[in-house]
Amino acid sequence: MGNILSLKNIVKIYPNGVMANKEVSIDIEENTIHAIVGENGAGKTTLMKIIFGEEAPQKGEIYYKGKKVNIKNSLDAIKMGIGMVHQNLMLAPDLTVAENLILGIEPLRYGVFLDLKKIIELTEEASKKFGFKVSLNKKISDLSIGKKQRVEILKALMRDAELIILDEPTSVLTPQETEVLFKSLKDLKNHGKTIIFISHKLKEVKLIADKVTVMRDGKVISTNDVNQLDEHMIAHMMVGRKINFKRIHKAKKVGDPLFIVKNLSYLSEENIFVLKNINFEVRAGEILGVAGVEGNGQTELVEILTGLREATSGQIFIGKENISGFSPRKIREEMVAHIPEDRMKNGVAEHATIEENIIVDRYYQDYFSNNKNLFLDWKYISKFSNDLIEKFKILTPSSKAVILSLSGGNIQKVVVARELSSNPQVIIAAQPTRGIDVGSEELIHNLLKDARDNGIATFLVSADLDEVLKLSTRIIVIYDGEIVARFDDIKDITSKVLGPYMLGVKKKGD
Amino acid sequence: MEKFLLKYFNLIRAVIAILIGIIISVCIVYIISKEPGFSLKSLFLGPLLSKSRFGNFIETASPIIFCGLAIAIPFQAGQFNIGAEGALFIGAAVGTAFGVSTNMPAFLHIPLVLLVAGLTGAFWGFIPGFLKAKWNTSELVVSLMLNYVAYFIGLYLINFHFRDKAAGWLVSYKLPETAWLIQFVSGTRIHIGVIISLGFAVLVYYFLYHTTLGYEIRTSGFNIDFARFGGINVFKVIIIAQVIGGFIAAIGGMTEVMGIHRRFNWQISPGYGWDGVVVAIIGRNNPLLIILSSLFLAYLRVGGRILNLLSDIPAEMITIIQSIIILLITAEAFLAGWKYRITVREAKAKEVGHEPST
């Protein structure tokens, strides 16, 4: 079999001076599933955007089916037979599935009017041909993420894509949905398609890919047949050192309940109960993990716990003190730290410096400011920040560097450094390692483990089941705003066990 | 060299923008003026050619600096309050009313008149601030509309209650001498207010970058969700930034009245508040840079006035020339491609330097 796509010496430099791809050369063999793995910031997504015509490389050549091509934009790529499913799905939420599928290639009557009958025909035909069952008349906004993803893939197929790029497709899926996706991908391969699969979940790569290319720091480290490598070897190549995969759920000594939530409910502005009668307690020295598909109330729950949103009813206690209705500052003064789920939304101010980001919760306290805390002491702040930069291994030229100049992993380390250095007794961590590289992830996991061993009560919300399983002492599962299962002993719990609860198929009495 | 270019990119861009603006102005002048040499001299060197013109230049900069600061503080808080013009106008009107109706020694009179004007302006900043914080109304729209309200209230106050009927035209009574700001350079009208404006610029700089309240303001402007997340009382910050802005704008208007005209003689709004928006943007909301951008704009304004008086070029043309220069400076994308090419070369050079080690 020949190569459907060859990249030769691709170089890409962004306007901010970051060199995302350094002389990258990869051959993609026809009719294979080719995985590209690497830490965040390794240049995978950039490379895919170049193939799909969304970014222009400074240097390098692209050969498609043996011919040298110049892909100026995504329209060129689509015409050639390349399709891409982005990490953030690109669908029009208010249109139906059929309308989305046909977008840009609409069949017309008299050259002006949409041919609705033809649309249905075309889309039905395509969904049958590739065995993709989707309800064509449903609105996109009514579909689950997994279904939306299928629509995206089908969309690419309907444009006669021969080569389909999937950018971290499983990061938003439950284990069951992932299985379905993998089955479809294998079907597609049987139909003669070629698939590029980007991931940093090594288990999945082993499961589905034929070939794997490892990227690190903008360069290709190696391309191999998957069965020549095991997970540890791939991980080693990704980060350049060994990584610990073991679960660490053995808590040393668990103390009394420290963070207690009683009968918490939240009625949204749309008059929907987003949270229904939530009860749990986190004891000192343990990590309580929350498993659940995103969008089942976790975001609102964390916001309520940290004072950013008001509950409709219910109480929150720290020890014996009722902190319900406290402002974010008062909650922080109760020694509650908060790692937010979306660091760019409210975890940092991206145009401010590291120092300015570090002090947001403490600038008004002694040492950080003097004279009745009216005047900032920048000298002390710099020293404090530099200590954190060292302790948390934040890669930056200076504590006065702007957040935007850091990589995602380092930005998250700034957030974690701030929150863990606030001397907390409770940590509320939402998606603490989302979208960051394996190295930073390991560092943050170890920090959370250390915090636990120091008697801190941690409430962990994560869409990454492996993370929940790796860190938690106990696990609760949330579905549709309700706690549907609790697991106090998680020794034998796997993602397979949690899946049905996360999807609302199973429910467990307390 | 290229590192130098990247570091001072904004400054270099400003200089190039000004140069292009000058070239365009020269072309325009050559096309429409019968004596282009003289016209150009008036425009670009006019403010320096006599003591009184130089005085004009400096005294024009003063209220612009005040208004630039008044705009920069809410802007730094992420609040697009453009009500400096209204705060300046109504502040000066109320301050004048207070000044002409009271009598006390100068050391009390001057600060009290300034304070009354300032508090009036502060109230004018409070209205859009409070409405924004409480009900999330657009401070942009409210402050813009309030400019008209301020204008007509100010006119009503002066023309119906404090009008000096002996003066022969629509002006207020003269302020008692105890409320005058001294003009201290003979042959010019440069007054104490100029010094006060510079003092305010330094103060505001210190306030924004070295106090906890300044930090709260800037952090809210960077990312208001982040500020809320960190525990900052955003409600308070939104209001305070606009209150301080209104206060400073009004002081600017009042010093102009106390230092130059010694009575309220504006029948049309003087426009310093709008100049304030321009200099705040050019100076990137940095108080110290606002001093420079205000001097620059004042120089253009005075040069334009001289040109208008002495040459055959219509005033409209002068405004166009000024606008071109301002437009070029404020255009973020201007020369961005050039910067990008340098960045690419730098990054490549750096990579080559690193290569042997891998």
Key features of this structure:
heterodimer; A: 510 residues; alpha/beta; Rossmann fold; six-stranded mixed beta sheet; 17 helices; 26% strand; B: 358 residues; mainly alpha; ABC transporter involved in vitamin B12 uptake, BtuC; 2 domains; 15 helices; 76% helix; disordered C terminus
Structural notes for this entry:
- With 510 residues, chain A is of the alpha/beta class.
- Chain A folds into two domains: 3-239, Rossmann fold (3-Layer(aba) Sandwich); 257-502, P-loop containing nucleotide triphosphate hydrolases (Rossmann fold, 3-Layer(aba) Sandwich), CATH 3.40.50.
- Helices cover 32% and strands 26% of the residues of chain A.
- In chain A, strands 6-9-10-3-11-12 form a six-stranded mixed beta sheet, with helices on both faces. Chain A has a six-stranded mixed beta sheet with strand order 18-21-22-15-23-24, with helices on both faces.
- In chain A, helix 15 links the parallel strand 21 and strand 22 (457-461).
- Chain A is globular and about 70 Å long.
- The mean pLDDT of chain A is 86.
- Chain B has two domains: 1-33 and 313-358, no CATH class; 53-305, ABC transporter involved in vitamin B12 uptake, BtuC, CATH 1.10.3470.
- In chain B, helix 2 runs antiparallel to helix 3 and helix 5 (84-100) runs parallel beside helix 7 (139-161).
- With 358 residues, chain B is mostly helical.
- Chain B is built from 15 helices and no strands.
- The longest helix of chain B has 30 residues, at 106-135.
- At the A-B interface, helix 10, helix 11 and strand 20 of A face helix 9, helix 10 and helix 15 of B.
Topology overview:
The complex is a heterodimer of chains A (510) and B (358).
Chain A (H helix, E strand, L loop, with lengths): L2 E11 L5 E11 L3 E6 L5 H8 L7 E6 L2 E3 L4 H7 L1 E4 L11 H6 L5 E2 L3 E2 L1 H14 L15 H14 L4 E5 L7 H16 L3 E6 L2 H7 L2 E6 L2 E7 L5 H9 L17 E11 L5 E11 L3 E5 L6 H8 L7 E6 L2 E2 L5 H6 L2 E4 L3 H5 L6 H5 L10 E2 L4 E2 L1 H14 L16 H13 L5 E5 L7 H16 L3 E5 L3 H7 L2 E6 L2 E6 L7 H8 L8
Parallel strand pairs in A: 3-10, 3-11, 6-9, 9-10, 15-22, 15-23, 18-21, 21-22
Antiparallel strand pairs in A: 1-2, 1-4, 4-5, 7-8, 11-12, 13-14, 13-16, 16-17, 19-20, 23-24
Chain B lengths: L1 H6 L1 H24 L3 H10 L5 H26 L7 H17 L5 H30 L3 H23 L30 H19 L1 H11 L1 H7 L3 H28 L10 H11 L4 H24 L4 H16 L5 H19 L4
Helix pairs in contact in B: 2-3, 2-14, 3-13, 4-8, 4-9, 4-11, 4-12, 4-13, 5-6, 5-7, 5-11, 5-12, 6-7, 6-11, 8-9, 8-11, 8-13, 9-10, 9-11, 12-13, 13-14
